[in-house]
Amino acid sequence: MDTEALKKLALLGAMEGSIRLSSAEFASHISASTQTAARRLQELTRMELIVRDVNPAGQVIRISERGKSILHTEYIDYRKLFEGQNGHITLCGSVVTGLGEGQYYMVLEGYRKQFVEKLGFTPFPGTLNLKLDPASMPARRRLGSGILVHGFTDQNRTFGGAKCYPVRLDDVRGAIIVPDRTHYPEDVIEIISPVNLREHGKLRDGSQVRVEVIE
After folding, report:
1. Has residue 181 been placed in a domain?
2. Phi-psi domain of 12 (left: phi exceeds 0; alpha: psi -120 through 50; beta: other)
3. Does a structural domain hold residue 37?
4. How many other CB atoms are there within 10 angstroms of residue 147's CB atom?
């Protein structure tokens, strides 16, 4: 079953209604020849996953109820994959080198006391930085309000607040920390833990890591 072609049609708008789309145009969207694109559309029509009206002015396509059901099943499967069977959100990414600021902020007493009180551990002075896989970004954006870490003032300097999300990396607990003011893009997350995660997991830049968010 050509679910990839079906998903592409949905992304082009054929889920919400009918779209006018030539085989040549579809070919450019799926990086295939016009002949291959036409054949894939014919196959989707034969399987009653799309409804196609071909006339001298071109062709109009919409995804059928059966096609929508197939896509919904795919969606449920992906949710199970990235959120887990128990509803926990799972994020996957590769280890990257950070800016090195974590080791400074983790030992500040204004933060350390809150980590102990709210997360239940004193963090190792440093963070593990992960660049998330594109497939994990929808789950990343579904993170809730998190645990609030308040900002504070120390010696006339103001330190900003952050949100924390308890996580597990295999047998180690930790937390994603999202500062109110961050230098990282949305697809890079920082993880704190009571242990040195790089050493504990024998991780290096490029290592793949799977993180389960505990809600």
Report:
1. yes
2. alpha
3. yes
4. 16
